[in-house]
Design a protein that fits this description.
The chain is globular, with a radius of gyration of 22 Å. The protein is of the alpha/beta class and 411 residues long. It folds into 2 domains: 4-166 and 384-410, Rossmann fold, CATH 3.40.50.2000; 171-381, Glycogen Phosphorylase B (Rossmann fold). The chain is built from 18 helices and 14 strands. The longest helix has 21 residues, at 196-216. A 7-stranded parallel beta sheet has the order 3-2-1-4-5-6-7, sandwiched between helices. The chain has a 7-stranded mixed beta sheet with strand order 10-11-9-8-12-13-14, sandwiched between helices.
Length: 411
């Protein structure tokens, strides 16, 4: 009899990771039935997606608007599990969303595997009680994280980072190059986020930084990799200025952030689903905090990490929730040191970020030093195999050890 696995995700990155996991599960056992709440990437891998949960993904205070929607999905899941409970429930990332689903699954006696562990070591450590109560095994993507969970009584295992399952083995040859200017103007990547809420927070200020950098380096090229979800927020102020092939937008911004006409337009290229094509071309990246910093570092491309935060919300709540000395993941992996400049929280004038970018571009030796440091930081986690490692954990939890499945597939 075929086994049934149910996966829940809340955002685009979780959808992509769940899709890779589903592919690995079906490779180990083609008869397995995989269902869940997720997005188009999961559906493309043959997962039966009951509800699309990634389109309106949000973080922190923006997530409050999804409460009614999440409650409706939880109610549906309770009815579904009452009728036909699965053999395993897998939560992927997004603890504020997924711990509710883990609790429901556990109440029905369904074993729970959590992939891309909640970053409780950074904030909301009190949720560890919920993890212990509702999660049977945690698949962690960072070695220090797995150890942190084990010290607190959670069965956690480091499985590798899913990012490296998809990246080319030659990625450092693509991205790790010495600065190519002043022979030509610099190429600067802009990563404002994958969610609409992130882009709305970060993009206006990043445009101001682009304006100042463009004034210091006439002819500077700006490349903006975008997700389909975030595209409307990016094109809110300025639509495509030229006729383009679909999914690629060449924009010429005529007005500054204050609405004044610029002496020279800011020209930038927005391209959908092209992170791995654009970032290796860059000399420097302005990157919002999150997984994307690891993604940029995987190519050995220097960066400045930012995250625009409301000053009142940060001082009223954010500063009390965040427990780590550094927030950018590459700096955490570097032992809480300043491997890259980070401006988090980022509020008020943009001059500090713009001046930092201009200084790095004026001193290519600083970019070279940062590039080498990033390569050293990423090397310990740069092995592929995370998706398959998690799939094997899942097989063990549903009573089909991966070794047995591999043997059957080879016969």
């Amino acid at each position: 009899m075929s086994k049934r696995v149910f996966i829940t995700v809340a955002e685009v990155s979780g959808d992509n990771n769940a899709a890779s996991l589903a592919r690995a599960l079906l490779r180990l056992d083609p008869s397995i039935r995989i269902e869940g709440l997720g997005g188009p990437a999961m559906a493309a891998e043959g997962v039966r997606v009951h509800f699309e949960t990634t389109t309106r993904a949000a973080m922190t205070f923006h997530a409050a608007g999804r409460v009614r929607e999440v409650w409706r999905w939880l109610k549906w899941m309770k009815a579904e599990y009452s009728r036909d409970k699965p053999d395993l429930h897998i939560c992927v990332d997004s603890s504020g969303f997924n711990l509710h689903f883990a609790k429901v699954a556990k109440s029905f006696g369904v074993p729970v595997l959590y992939y891309v562990a909640p970053q409780l070591w950074a904030s909301r450590e009190g949720r560890i009680k919920k993890v212990r109560a509702s999660v049977d095994r945690v698949a962690s993507i960072f070695p220090f994280e797995a150890e942190w969970y084990r010290q607190r009584g959670v069965n956690a295992e480091f499985v590798g980072h899913p990012l490296f399952d998809a990246l080319p083995a030659t990625r450092l040859e693509l991205g790790s190059h010495p600065p190519r200017f002043p022979d030509r103007p610099p190429v600067i990547g802009i990563v404002p986020g994958s969610r609409k809420s992130e882009v709305k927070e970060n993009w206006p200020s990043l445009l101001q930084v682009m304006e100042k950098v463009s004034a210091a380096f006439p002819g500077a090229e700006f490349l903006v990799p975008a997700t389909q979800n975030a595209l409307p927020a990016l094109l809110g102020r300025a639509g495509p200025a030229e006729g383009n092939v679909p999914r690629v937008y060449h924009v010429s911004e005529q007005f500054g952030a204050a609405g004044d006409r610029l002496e020279r337009p800011i020209k930038y290229c927005i391209e959908v689903d092209s992170f791995d094509r654009l970032i290796p071309q860059c000399d420097l990246v302005l990157c919002k905090s999150g997984t994307s910093t690891v993604h940029v570092a995987a190519y050995g491309v220097p960066m400045i990490v930012v995250y625009r935060v409301n000053r009142v919300l940060w001082h009223g709540a954010g500063r009390w929730l965040v427990k780590t000395k550094k927030i950018a993941m590459v700096n955490i992996l570097a032992g809480q040191t300043d491997a890259v400049p980070e401006f988090i929280p980022w509020y008020g004038p943009v001059n500090a970020v713009a001046n930092c970018a201009i200084d790095l571009l004026n001193h290519p030796e600083k970019l070279t030093a940062q590039r080498q440091r990033l390569i050293e930081i990423i090397e310990p986690i740069s092995k592929p195999g995370a998706s398959m490692n998690v799939a094997k954990m899942a097989m063990e939890m549903i009573g089909r050890p991966a070794m047995q499945v591999d043997m059957e597939l080879s016969l």
